[in-house]
Amino acid sequence: MESFALPLIASGGLGLIFLGNSEKYANIIKLVVGFGFLFMGLDYMKVSMEVFTSTLDINSIPDYGILFYLVIGILLTTIMQSSSATIAIVLTALNLEILSFNSAVAMVIAPSKMSALQPPSYLEL
Questions:
Q1: Residue 93: count of CB within 10 angstroms of its CB
Q2: Rounded to the nearest 10 degrees, how much is the dihedral formed by the CA atoms of 23, 9, 34, 44?
Q3: d(CA 84, CA 115)
Q4: What's this model's pTM, rounded to 2 decimal places?
Q5: Residues near 61 by Cβ (< 8 Å), separated by ≥ 6?
Q6: CA 87, CA 69: separation in Å to the nearest integer?
Q7: Predicted pLDDT at 99
Q8: pLDDT for res 102
Q9: pLDDT tens digits for range 63-112
């Protein structure tokens, strides 16, 4: 993924320099740069989780049960204030086999339910 990230960001930067005056092209270029940063962030997350798993013995983590992982998902979402970031971290951990499927499901259900419980924007002060 990293092989896509930097060329997208670089071509987007050059595109903004040369074609930034046109609103249509500027929006398309910003989309390309956004995808570049997305790919770069996903690659950083993958590499950091691989380093984390190389230093952590996965067998030392006992299976605490679904409720424990549900609470961990709620805490991660509360601390980061982003349910999509929590879901991305959980999916990366599931891909690297740090978490079992059942515990990953519990950790994903928590942030999605928390974002559904937020009040509508017209009720905020």
A1: 18
A2: -170
A3: 10
A4: 0.60
A5: 98
A6: 13
A7: 81
A8: 84
A9: 777 788 788 888 877 777 777 778 888 888 888 888 888 888 888 887 77
Token representation of residue 12: 């987007």
If 0-12 CB within 10 Å is exposed, 13-18 middle and 19+ buried, where does residue 116 land? exposed
Residue 74 and residue 114 in contact, taking contact as beta carbons nearer than 8 Å = yes
- Report d(CA 104, CA 109) in Å as an integer: 9
Q: Is 71 helix (H, G, I), strand (E, B) or coil?
A: helix
Contacts (Cβ under 8 Å, ≥6 apart) of 74: 110, 111, 114
For residue 46, give the amino acid letter: K
Q: Find out whether 29 and 20 touch, Cβ atoms under 8 Å.
A: yes
